[in-house]
């Protein structure tokens, strides 16, 4: 419930609960909080429209208050009944001149730090003395981040991971109908009304998306409860910024002027929604589509390659449970990780992604148990690293394995094996570039917390889906390390 202790004007930070931080403008004798008119509906709508200049989608409630700083006379009067001062950030930068009707003995002196226009004549001096500019020292101006503040296309790519503003807007417009229906995550107990238990991926999906994908769902006209402080576009921007830059929850709370609890709710809810909606961008193409887009490097040496596979790992923080730690420990990385199998087409598009496994899981185990083998058709060629000992598994599917040859222990490679290794390495570099693209989203390059473990599959799906919006690898001209 919104309290009546704070001024509802966007840039104003006056709050009764923080008396030491109150800002009183020069034209105000006593700072008070004024209720919206209840009997005059036209006047109430006028006040709401004025406040909306600095606070989008504002709807007044019974607890909405406006402080005296925004009224020319310090309070609503017959001459100046409406709040017209300091409604936007520009009003603070360029304050309006006020005509204060006070006796000479009660006229306030303008602060020495307030800018005053030069007066060359006596008439101008009298006008300046009657129209002082209020001082605005020590005004705390906090504006929540919005997508409109990102003006350059290079900044759009850096902050959001989208190639352009058009891509960002198209994906957002596609998500809006579903986003209006979703139920925000508030924890297992509050969201579902059940006893406290550890959150898991299936339960989070059920709670958040049950209303979104229910049959016969319609867009609600008016949601109950207080007005949300963030718009859907801001919530979408917050989510993709964390995916792209790996920002901390507290950092995002500061940027968007909301609490850390609210950031966590938005993050979990939107990750689930994005995973559900964007997973359709990860497509397993047909043989005809693969051969039609086969790069020249493959046409020469490996014209029948259907897919290139590899495994990668992402760091996790140290778990408190020894049993969980034993499952997540990676001897290869010497760290706690989760591992996933990624499959790409020869032109670099992500065509399949496996569920995540603990760091101790072997590459061969993931290939055999993730469902990847069920996608293959007879006579497909799979390219992989020499660590994938899956030739017998592919033979059962009547498929072929293209891997670099291994040298016998203690012996050097023969010249033919060296040539084959060079050929495989020249084309297999595409999967390394594709993984680098996925980890360009820095959420996968940082150490994830154990609380985010139920979200790792969804985070991975979102990053791979957004990577598929990039140009093909052979046509890429942008350095992915920037």
Automatic annotation (TrEMBL):
Residues 98-127 are annotated as: Disordered. Residues 111-122 have a biased composition (Polar residues). InterPro entries: HARBI1_dom, THAP_Znf, THAP_Znf_sf, Transposase_HTH_dom. Keywords: DNA-binding, Metal-binding, Zinc, Zinc-finger. PANTHER family: THAP DOMAIN PROTEIN, TRANSPOSASE HELIX-TURN-HELIX DOMAIN-CONTAINING PROTEIN. One of its GO terms (molecular function) is zinc ion binding. This is THAP domain-containing 11. Its cofactor is a divalent metal cation. Pfam families: DDE_Tnp_4, HTH_Tnp_4, THAP. Gene3D superfamilies: THAP domain.
